Amino acid sequence: MTVVLWGIAKVIGLVLLVLLLLIVAALLIVLFVPVRYRAEISADGAVRGQVRATWLLHLVSFRLLYDRELTLSLRVLAFRLMGGEEKRKRKRKRRQRRESPGGRERPAEREEKAAKESPVKESERLSEKSPPGSVAEPEPAPPKPPPPEPESASESRRAPAAHGTKTEETDGETKAKGIAGKIWLMLWKLGKRIAGIFRAVRAFPARLRRLKARILAAFRRLRGRIKELKNKKDRIWEFLSKEENRKTLLLIKRQVFAVIRHILPRKVKGEFRFGFDDPSVTGQVLMAVSPFYGCYARSLTLTPVFEEKVLVGNVSLKGRIRVATLLVIVIRLCMDRNFRRLARKWLR
After folding, report:
1. Each residue of 296-338: pLDDT tens digit?
2. Is the dihedral of CA 270, 275, 279, 281 positive or negative?
3. How far apart are CA 63 and CA 83, in angstroms?
4. Within its chain, how far is the Cα of 340 from the centroid?
5. Rounded to two decimals, what is the model's pTM?
6. pLDDT digits (tens, 9 = 90+) for 135-145
7. 140 by DSSP, 3-state: which?
8. Nearest to 336 by CA among 249, 238, 240
9. Which residue, 44, 49, 93, 302, is most buried by CB atoms nearer than 10 A?
């Protein structure tokens, strides 16, 4: 009985040992197998580019493609988890074209064939309707009605010439009314303007009081802001005056630069000519990339153009990111006691 129990315990121990070894191997693979990425960017008036990232012999692959449209693709173990809509649409269109009657013909061939068959069918249809020996004549167009006569002309014809004196009298009355109306309108507008001036003069003290209140409120806000900035400056100065805080900040700076150096691409190759309408923008872009240009001066050529707007060139870069390296950097930070204290204080 003890032999059997010993054998069962031995088998269970072996199984647990195998599982433990598999877990350790998986952790080592995750930590030390890097994620490799590759990017290609080209520009000839329009910018095109793609970014690929793979892990563990393309077991996991990610692709980002930009060519007037942005497309994403993610595969795990040859199974597509993201993207592929355009390929599926193309396959569906091909399948529908094959299943449709005459779908194997190209669209241009179908249009040409339809254009050839249409006049023949039309002539057959006309020949069936018309009796033999007769020629189909076009139907006469209906006569167009005469254009309507303008009302002013018809009224002028109807009005007799004998009423000329009456029209002259009415014209004189309307002129007199028009002059009086204009004078009255001018007087009304003048009175309205005078009333508006009186109202503005009456409301001027209230506006002055409101303006004074706004200026005082703005001054109080400005004074409060200056006081708040002064308090912040005092707190920062107090923080930096401690030796341990300065050491912690120096440690954080070193680790941040280590992360940047690790993530940046190892190989860069290509050339670019760029320029904008405003030469100052070109100078700003050149100033922004200048801190990193020293790393790739031998393999990457940047040519600024200050006279015209241009963007031509191609660039390819490769790099890798290892989880173990990032984990070591995090452990270095967490081992600092002052950093842990500050992190707990900031996360509250």
Report:
1. 778 888 888 888 888 899 999 999 999 999 999 999 999 999 8
2. negative
3. 9
4. 39
5. 0.58
6. 444 444 455 55
7. coil
8. 249
9. 302
